[in-house]
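From the methods appendix. Each design record in this collection lists the tokenized structure first, followed by the designed amino acid sequence. Records were kept in a plain field format so they could be parsed without special tools. The example shown here is representative of the layout used throughout.

RECORD:
FOLD TOKENS (229 positions):
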């Protein structure tokens, strides 16, 4: 099935070749140039959202899309400030890509976010009474949320309580960036003076999982869980 994407970009010199390039990968992109047009557009599979729009701040558009529609969003930004990225991710963006970027990288991000979105939709589908599954499987990683047991490739991985809590949070949206502040507030109930503690636990978690590639750092922003076999 052809993937339908909405590209929200006010610069035609960027948008036109991007639409043409995505078409070569079988992705149909419809282009609008303002936040108002984006919010009035019909449903799509995914939104590519530039933050620097002429009418509405892109972060505010992201917040509104997340509030009113169940659609994944990838932010496209020339802004390098941590505050902008954090606001966008808190507003519901699934990923971000800093300009300039290659078409191949963008396509890879689109496909990865789409896979995660579809998998999450299946997971949310009502099956019996349970609101969410008791077991999370991400690649070769299995998390039994009932017993708080973890295994990689069938081998048990003993985790300290905080390590398990961190992993469970990252596994709730595999591939999506989880903000440092959110991890600190959820696992330690405070973000005050816990930065080094978080980094220590992430390092320990990577070591126990057997491959540091399981957890990717987005410098100054947060972490994301990457599915490995």
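DESIGN:
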């Amino acid at each position: 099935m052809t993937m339908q994407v909405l590209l929200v970009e006010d610069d035609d010199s960027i948008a036109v070749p991007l639409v043409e390039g995505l078409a070569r990968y079988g992705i149909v992109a419809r282009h609008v140039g303002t936040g108002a047009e984006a919010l009035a557009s019909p449903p799509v599979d995914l939104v590519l959202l530039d933050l620097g729009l002429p009418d509405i701040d892109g972060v505010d558009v992201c917040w509104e899309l997340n509030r009113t529609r169940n659609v994944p969003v990838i932010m496209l930004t020339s802004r390098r400030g941590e505050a902008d990225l954090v606001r966008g991710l808190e507003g519901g963006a699934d990923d971000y890509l800093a300009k300039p970027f290659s078409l191949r990288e963008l396509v890879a991000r689109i496909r990865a976010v789409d896979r995660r979105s579809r998998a999450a939709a299946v997971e949310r589908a009502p099956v019996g009474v349970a609101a969410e599954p008791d077991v999370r499987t991400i690649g070769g990683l299995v998390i039994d949320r009932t017993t708080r047991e973890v295994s990689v490739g069938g081998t048990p991985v003993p985790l300290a309580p905080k390590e398990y809590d961190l992993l469970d949070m990252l596994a709730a949206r595999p591939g999506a960036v989880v903000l440092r502040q959110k991890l600190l507030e959820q696992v330690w109930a405070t973000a005050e003076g816990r930065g080094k503690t978080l980094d220590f636990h992430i390092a320990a978690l990577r070591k126990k999982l057997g491959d540091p590639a399981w957890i990717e750092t987005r410098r100054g922003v947060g972490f994301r869980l990457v599915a490995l076999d």
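APPENDIX NOTE: The helical segments are 12-24, 35-40, 58-68, 82-90, 103-124, 161-172, 180-188, 195-209.
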